[in-house]
Amino acid sequence: MRGREWAHPVRPARREVLGVDPELEEGRPPLLFVPGFGHGAWAFAEHWLEHAASRGFPAYAMSLRGHGGSEPAPGATLRAYTHDVVQVAAGLSRQAVLVGHGAGALVVSHALARYPARAAVLVAPVLGGAATAGAALRANPLGTLPALFGGALRLHRRQLFSRELPEADARRHLARLGRAGRRAQWQLLAGRPAEPAVGRP
Length: 201
Hints:
Helices cover 39% and strands 12% of the residues. By secondary structure, the chain is an alpha/beta fold. The protein has one domain: Rossmann fold (3-Layer(aba) Sandwich). The protein is globular and about 50 Å long. The two termini are 19 Å apart. The mean pLDDT is 87.
C-alpha cells in the first residue's frame, strides 16, 4: 500500500456492475470488461457478456464512476477510475482477467500496478499522451479542442463506430454516452505512464 493511498484515499462511489455466469462452473477466471470514457457497462452487456459466459467464463462489465448507472462524479480522476477497477476486480470470486477498451485500456494499465490480474487485454487502446491528443484533434478538432482547455470532450460517430454499423444503432449508442471527469480527460491527454504491473499478468 502506498503512503498517498492512506493519506488521501479515493472517495467511495457506488459502481454499476453487470454480470452473467456460465451455466456450468468450470473454474475459468472471471472476465472484467472496462469500457472507455463516456461508455458504461451497457457497452459490453449487449453482446459480450452472454458470449463470454457461453464459453464458460464468468463475465462482468462495470461502469466507472460518473458513467452508465454508477454514481455521478464530475470531478473524477484517472486515479479514481483506477480505484474503481481494482475494487471491483478484488471483489470477484477469483483472480480476474481485465479487459479494457479505448480509454478503459488506459485505466486497466494503471490498475495492473495495484491488482495482480491473471491477464489483461487492451482492446483498441487509447493510452494517452501527445500522439492520442494529435490523433483526436485530426479526427474531431471541434470535439477535442475544448478538452485541451478543461472543457468537455465530445466524441464523434467516426471516432467510435465503423461505417458498417447502421445509423440508427449509432444514434442509439451516442445518446447513451456520458462524460468523463474533466481532470481524467486532461490526464488522458497528458499521458502519465502506468507503473509496472504487480504479479505476472
